[in-house]
Design a protein that fits this description.
The complex is a heterodimer of chains A (343) and B (252). Helix content of chain A is 11%, strand content 51%. By secondary structure, chain A is mainly beta. Chain A has one domain. Classes of the chains: A mainly beta (343), B alpha/beta (252).
């Protein structure tokens, strides 16, 4: 393979990332420490453990900002760090957050990510998690949206030992919208949890959640989703769906929808499913000469696709689609504990 | 001519209930066979057992396909060996596009023959050629497999798939059900265009109507899991005018 780019020389020389997507700015965070100064017009404030990225009022950042956060053997202690993304009113940004483990140490990471989206601002946020089987990672998002702002958030958990995502979203300004999509792929003895709390604090906001999980072997996943509609939050629209596809008798998917509605003029729904592969579809495909494994893969990919489909960067969508396929083909795990670096 | 398939005293059951009670049937290359019979006679069970559907249990007899024991083969191996089942109720697969589905199938067949996978351009060319056989719009290829297809489109899609896979033996299970006259003609023309001296077709049908278009060499009547009558194409016409009762009375 050629055309790898490397992190700055002062950073871990072993880390590599494939050619970035077109029109992408890459930023590197090693063991919680941001490795770069301000880039162009994007303001980054360093903190002891973490960083703040600030987008000024009215500023539209055309590039995709890819922030690659890695755990390395240089610091194997449990780690807490915080990152903060601030979009002032009428600004827009596209963020891709990747998290990886570069060595086989038993990492424990607590990450707090706060996101503040100002009035009329638009944020496209994609989080991609690909860590090894001995990694514990708690990612906690605290997100607030002001009036008429929009968040499109995709969280894709490709690999990891014990991953817990807590996503708290506060819809604080009239007319804001949050579209939240999650895909988690779990095999072996992996544990993946997604806890979502969406609070409709004011009227006329929309939220949509779609979380999809594909489980194999003895994997365990949990989804709990709360939609809270405050007393005065009339004309709220809030939807939630969690679908799980189990390809093993020993995998377990827990799903817990929770709606708390105090307003009386709202549209809300929730749905949760746990199912296995569709035998009729499998037989149909096999009768055309598609082997069992390929037929299963096609079905899993079709199942996963809806959770990615709304990514509006076609190149990124394509890349993630490929990663999902590779992951489902088992090409991620070189050995029992590790995963490939794929960002 | 070469025997493509030899079915000998085939017994099969589902959930402990015997449906096939000793089927004997040999199909040679170049032949078109029709299997007719009233509801519940075992026609669809026969096609499902031959294609390898897992919830049927074969309790006796043998099936030899091109010299191999068909009953030991997985559904995909049967397909690779040259068997094709046209489904009575084609399955919808949301999220898997027709092009992805058929390209995967064609390339798996090629892999079995140690041929390289088709390039996108090669596949497209082949697909266009075969779509024309069943008068289908290439735009259909980006849609989910059978999703939102009308009854006629689903059956045309079955024949399109048959054309792509070029089987030695095609079993068409109630291909005429749910078709209007135009769709019936298109589907039947498709089957006729694919006929060669090397391949063969078994047409399973309720009605004689389809056999006006796909003319069989041999007609079998199946009843209660056995073939009770085998004759030339005139048998189909006789069934159409007289029903099955006289044959049933004759056999009992």
């Amino acid at each position: 393979m050629t055309n790898y780019i490397y992190t700055p020389d002062n950073n871990n020389p072993g880390f590599r990332c494939r050619v970035p997507l077109n029109n992408t700015v890459q930023l590197f965070v090693a063991d919680g420490i941001m490795q770069q100064e301000n880039i162009g017009e994007i303001s980054i404030q360093q903190q002891e453990r973490g960083y703040t990225l600030h987008v000024e009022k009215g500023k539209n950042i055309p590039e995709l900002l890819q922030i690659i956060s890695v755990r390395t053997s240089a610091n194997t202690r449990p780690l807490d760090f915080s990152s903060r993304f601030e979009l002032e009113s009428c600004s827009s940004a596209k963020l891709l957050l990747c998290s990886h483990t570069l060595s086989e140490d038993n990492f424990a990471t607590n990450e707090n990510i706060s996101v503040e989206i100002g009035e009329n601002a638009v944020l496209d946020l994609v989080m991609m998690q690909n860590e090894h089987n001995n990694s514990i990672h708690n990612a906690k998002f605290d997100i607030s949206l002001a009036a008429n702002s929009l968040l499109r958030f995709h969280i894709v958990t490709l690999h990891g030992g014990e991953i817990t995502n807590t996503i708290n979203v506060n819809l604080n300004g009239k007319g804001c919208e949050c579209d939240l999509n999650g895909l988690y792929l779990a095999n072996g003895k992996q544990h993946i949890s997604n806890k979502v709390n969406i609070s409709h604090n004011v009227p006329e906001c929309h939220s949509n959640q779609l979380f999809k999980g594909i489980l194999e072997d003895e994997a365990i996943t949990k989804f709990s989703g709360t939609i809270l509609v405050a007393k005065d939050a009339q004309k709220t629209e809030a939807y939630q769906a969690n679908n799980n596809l189990l390809s093993s008798d020993f995998a377990k998917a827990y799903t817990q929808p929770h709606l708390e509605i105090y307003a009386d003029d709202v549209k809300c729904s929730h749905g949760a499913t746990v199912g296995s592969l569709n035998e009729d579809e499998l037989f149909y495909m096999r009768s055309r000469g598609i082997s069992y494994n390929e037929a299963k893969l096609l079905q899993q990919q079709a199942f996963a696709y809806a959770a990615l489909a709304k990514i509006n960067n076609p190149e990124l969508l394509d890349r993630l689609g490929n990663l999902v396929e590779k992951r489902l083909r088992g090409e991620f795990s070189h050995c029992q504990n590790c995963s490939t670096h794929c960002c | 001519m070469e025997n493509l398939i030899e079915i000998k005293d085939l017994h099969a059951s589902i959930n402990g209930k015997e449906i096939l009670k000793g089927i004997n049937l040999t199909v040679k290359a170049g032949e078109v066979h029709a299997i007719m019979g009233p509801n519940g006679s075992g026609k669809s069970t026969l096609s499902a057992v031959l294609a390898g559907k897992e919830n049927y249990e074969v309790t006796g007899g043998s099936v030899t396909f091109l010299g191999r024991n068909l009953l030991e083969m997985s559904p995909e191996e049967r397909s690779w060996a040259g068997l094709f089942l046209g489904f009575q109720y084609p399955i919808e697969i949301p999220g898997v596009t027709n092009v992805n589905f058929m390209k995967t199938a064609v390339n798996e067949h090629r892999k079995q023959n140690n041929l390289p996978a088709l390039t996108a351009a090669e596949y497209l060319k082949l697909m266009r050629e075969k779509l024309a056989i069943v008068e289908m719009d290439p735009a259909f290829s980006s849609r989910g497999v059978n999703v939102g297809f009308s009854g006629g489109e689903k059956k045309r899609n079955e024949i399109f798939q048959m054309a792509m896979l070029n089987p030695r033996l095609a079993i068409l299970d109630e291909t005429d059900s749910g078709l209007d006259v135009d769709a019936l003609r298109i589907v039947a023309n498709g089957v006729n265009k694919l006929k060669t001296p090397q391949n063969a077709t078994i047409v399973i049908t309720h009605y004689q109507r389809l056999l006006d278009y796909i003319v069989p060499d041999i007609v079998h009547v199946l009843y209660k899991g056995r073939i009770i009558k085998t004759s030339g194409k005139e048998l189909a016409l006789e069934v159409e005018s007289r029903g099955y009762d006289w044959l049933i009375n004759e056999s009992e």
